[in-house]
Amino acid sequence: MQLIACPWCGPREEVEFSYGGQAHVPYPDSPAELSDEEWAHYVFFRDNPKGRFAERWNHSAGCRRWFNAIRDTATYRFERVYRLDDPKPVTP
Amino acid sequence: MAELLRTSPLQAWTDTFARLPDPVGITAEPFVATVDVRLGTVGPEASAALGVDLPTAPNTWVPAGTGRAVWLGPDEWLLTSSTETPEEFEARVRAAVLPLGGSATDVSAQRIGLRLTGARVRDVLATGCSIDLHPRVFGRGSSAQTTLGQAGVVLLALSDAADDFLVLVRSSFAGYLADWLLDAALEFTTTPTHDR
């Protein structure tokens, strides 16, 4: 089974984690002024790249903390794992 | 009206546990008061107020008075006490962490402890747990929140020889885990014990 390196607990089995979708989706600056279409884009529209993707993960069976990871959606390889307060790593 | 009696969730397994051979000993731990502590920053003030240095290294536990302090997350700990009642313990810990912006909640009823002792318990655990339990990396003072079988557990290493573990499991999963452990221990027992 694939191991995912939790930034707190270290490498653990994949089944201990749950997926949280795309990371770094900013909350709208002025939510009251958004149109329905803009809201829909914020709530539902996500990138779907083939290759590196910044994602949120939760170590739900362990320390229950959220963290971010750069994962390659084609190979399923985790290239980087970082805490929520860390900036998005610049990947080559 | 039927009389309500306090029983351990593992009452029905006591006799079966008692028949296990020494290398795979399993016993149900006595009830302990347990408090979940959330605290943003740990410093000398917290240590002085609580009377214990909360462990800040992930996956560790330290003795704390008559109980233990287990790291559950960067701002979360599990404190146990075997001498105080849950109400007393919660009140004391809450009084200590509230001025520091923390919180304390009595979770005594949430988990029950299973003590695994013996030379082969590491092999029993290894059949359902992916954590490396070799004493070189999981000696006394180590802990892990992980899954054992299908149940979420907190695993504490109580010795440096990998022959003494404490498994904290949700009370409602205790029966399942007891059955699972008996099944996993089967290959290390010479006499049939799995007669439940």
From TrEMBL, chain A:
It comes from Geodermatophilus tzadiensis. GO terms for biological process: tetrahydrofolate metabolic process. GO terms for molecular function: sarcosine oxidase activity. The lineage of its organism: Bacteria, Bacillati, Actinomycetota, Actinomycetes, Geodermatophilales. InterPro entries: SoxD, SoxD_sf. This is Sarcosine oxidase subunit delta.
TrEMBL record, chain B:
InterPro entries: SoxG, TrmE/GcvT-like. It holds the Pfam family SoxG. SUPFAM superfamilies: Folate-binding domain (SSF103025). This is Sarcosine oxidase subunit gamma. It comes from Geodermatophilus tzadiensis.
